[in-house]
Amino acid sequence: MAADNNQHYMKEVGERLRGVRILKGITQKQAADATGITQPFLSAIERGQRSACTAQLIALIRYYKVPYDMIFGSEEKDYSLHDFPSGESSEICIELLSQLVGKSRSEALVTGTDNCLKLVVYTIFRTIYRENPRNSDKLFSRDYYEALKLVENILIAAPNNIARFIRSSHSINAENFELPPEKNPELRSFINECEYMLDNCTYRRNIFLPKTDL
């Protein structure tokens, strides 16, 4: 029983370390190099397969700049996904997308991509804006729920429309859609962060509540 409890605790600590690292936009290699831990060993720690010594855990926590109880657990607070601090990945992902789309040299693709991003920002902005009772919906010409449904329909259709446009275009060479090798760490961090959120969020797509909170 004690061994099972220890294994479960190791797994929890590993998951929290991985979550903090990903949401900080840090690769395993960067964390390993900065703390003197080998990357394979750090990977095993994050999967709960190996136990780090106290000095190694402290080194990681200090490098990530997070509270100790965020990693070790707290009786007063149960940390959720939104408690993990995020890096500057939002700026990085826009930069990566801009570089990738820019390689198409297609004004239509650039405009379409930009419009999708605008609609996402519009939806979030409007949702937050309306929570203040002093703000008036008169600023908007569309009903809130009608607008959200229209945005949802557009964004759901966007991937297929974009792919269809690229394939049917005579001026776009899809083989140009590559990022320079020096951007690979940023790209991996961004992908890992998004997939971490997908793995840990509820079926209701609530980005603030991981599955364990249900």
Topology:
Blueprint: H1 2-23, H2 28-35, H3 39-46, H4 54-64, H5 68-72, H6 89-102, H7 107-130, H8 144-168, H9 184-200
Helix pairs in contact: 6-9, 7-8
Q: How many angstroms does the end-to-end distance come to?
A: 26 Å
Helix content: 55-70%
Mean of residue pLDDT?
81
Helix-strand makeup class: mainly alpha
Q: Helix and strand succession?
A: HHHHHHHHH
Low-confidence stretches: 202-214
Per DSSP E runs of 2 or more residues, the count of β-strands stands at 0
What's the story with the biggest beta sheet? none
Count of runs of 4 or more consecutive helical residues: 9
Radius of gyration: 21 Å
Total domains: 2
- As a percent range, the share of strand residues is under 5%
Q: Rough shape?
A: extended
Regarding quaternary structure, what we see is single chain
Describe this protein's structure:
Helices cover 63% and strands 0% of the residues. The relative contact order is 0.12. It is extended and about 55 Å long. With 214 residues, it is mainly α. Mean pLDDT is 81; it is low at 202-214. The longest helix has 25 residues, at 144-168.
Keywords:
single chain; 214 residues; mainly alpha; 434 Repressor (Amino-terminal Domain); 2 domains; 9 helices; 63% helix; extended; disordered C terminus
